[in-house]
Fold this sequence. Notes:
Blueprint: E1 2-4, E2 9-10, E3 15-17, E4 22-24, E5 29-30, E6 35-37, E7 41-43, E8 55-56, E9 61-62, E10 67-69, E11 73-74, E12 79-80, E13 85-86, E14 95-97, E15 102-105, H1 125-154
Parallel strand pairs: 1-4, 2-5, 3-6, 4-7, 5-8, 6-9, 7-10, 8-11, 9-12, 10-13, 12-14
Antiparallel strand pairs: 14-15
Amino acid sequence: GIEIHPAARIGRRLFIDHGMGVVIGETAEIGDDVLMYQGAVLGGVSLEKGKRHPTVGNEVVIGANAVVLGAIEIGDRARIGSGAIVVKPVPADSTAVGVPARLVRGPSVSRDHCGMLDHANYPDPIAENCRQMNARINELATTVAELQAQLREQMPAGDPQPVIER
């Protein structure tokens, strides 16, 4: 079911889609027009009195099984990807994904990841790392070829050529 602490402050038009497993803690604050999917948790990280649950801005989407922990702020129009574990603030107009969550879209993120994300099409950091490594390998191969050509030019005509190729 859906567990909402009676002291939680909830704005207008909160929509909980397929609400099984949703938990909203005692000091959580939720803005207007927020969408939460099944299994989403707004949890605390301490038993002490005082603010210990997240503050969620307006027009935020929190994906299925995402966990937002602690007295952190989720800015207006932010998106939290399915399965993310968020323990740091997420600025307005940003998207956070992963475990632990990292920003992949927003004002503080490079434009490489600015396309709209959907739950089935997250950026793949491993593929991105492979792309960067391949680009670096190509740069190094070009440098090696240039150095080999320079070495050949510097060798006297009658000297035996050193083995410089694989």
